Amino acid sequence: MEHIIKTNKSDEMINITDIVENDIRESGIEEGLVTVFVPHTTAGVTINENADPDVVHDILEGLRRAFPEDRGYLHREGNSHAHIKASVIGSSCTVIIEKGRMKLGIWQGIYFCEFDGPRTRKFFVKMY
């Protein structure tokens, strides 16, 4: 399934867990795997804590410090920091489906990660 997502900031993490759970419900799959894939080179997807919003803040702040915008990168578009962050985070994640639900930990959620926004993006969800 293809989803369109609009980001509002230069970098942000948007919880998409409910969207993926809804796709699983609609598919009727009870046992298997679900993969979320982001087809962009300056965005990614990750699984992390969804209980305390400070964790998302801290992840973004850590990535900003590790890969600042202005470090003499050669890429002309000026967004090498976003490419590096997306490579570190990754473009996909896979979760086990059991009894029609994702086997996420109690504090886990799936996040779309924007590193070069704001933009209109897409991500794909596939169950098998």
From TrEMBL:
It holds the Pfam family YjbQ. InterPro entries: UPF0047_YjbQ-like, YjbQ-like_sf. Belongs to the UPF0047 family. NCBIfam families: TIGR00149_YjbQ (TIGR00149). This is YjbQ family protein. It comes from Acidilutibacter cellobiosedens.
